[in-house]
Amino acid sequence: MDVPTSPQTIVQQYFASINSRDWPALRELLHPHLSLRVVGRGRLEGVEAALAYFETLLAGFTEGTDRPTRFLASGSSVVVEIDFDGRTVGGRPVAFSAVDVFDISEGKIRSLSVWYDSLDVARQVKGLRERTEP
């Protein structure tokens, strides 16, 4: 008999897969009808589109770790605060905070919203200084 896995456990497995770049393990966690929303960049539908997004995004980093710092779970939804620290293939350090919102259905991630300051991350990746206030 299969024991149901809690939504928070599924999300913890997601971060373990992302951090180890274990794409087959990540694939197993994603619902066939996954909807991935990257705020400021649009929406992707389906497992293949999501995997391509993650693989392409993380290919720009020689190292990088999402460190979940807080989990808020309610029913089948989990909100996670994250600190990311990494280094680009060009050797630049990148650090930022993010929030991910997960909805779990049938024991898999059915929807995921990713929230972070993409402009700040782009500046760090390009080696630009932080913007200054006028």
Short description:
32% of the residues lie in helices and 46% in strands. It is α+β, with helices and mostly antiparallel strands and 134 residues long.
CATH architecture type: Roll
Q: Which class do the helix and strand fractions yield?
A: alpha+beta
Mean pLDDT: 91
CATH class: Alpha Beta
Which shape, going by the Cα principal axes?
A: globular
Q: Could you estimate the helical fraction of the residues in percent?
A: 25-40%
Which sequence of SSEs, written as H and E, runs from N to C?
A: HHEEHEEEEH
The span between the termini is 62 Å
**Number of DSSP-assigned strands:** 6
Instruction: Characterize the biggest β-sheet.
Output: 6 strands, mixed
Number of domains: 1
Oligomeric state: single chain
Radius of gyration: 15 Å
Strand content bin: over 45%
Strand order of the largest sheet: 2-1-6-5-4-3
- Number of helical elements: 4
Structural commentary:
The protein is an alpha+beta fold. It has one domain: Roll (Nuclear Transport Factor 2, Chain: A), CATH 3.10.450.50. Helices cover 32% and strands 46% of the residues. A hairpin with a 2-residue loop joins strand 3 and strand 4. Helix 1 runs antiparallel to helix 2. The mean pLDDT is 91.
Topology of this structure?
Elements (H helix, E strand, L loop, with lengths): L6 H14 L2 H7 E9 L3 E4 L1 H13 L1 E14 L2 E12 L4 E13 L2 E9 L1 H9 L8
Parallel strand pairs: 1-6
Antiparallel strand pairs: 1-2, 3-4, 4-5, 5-6
Helix pairs in contact: 1-2
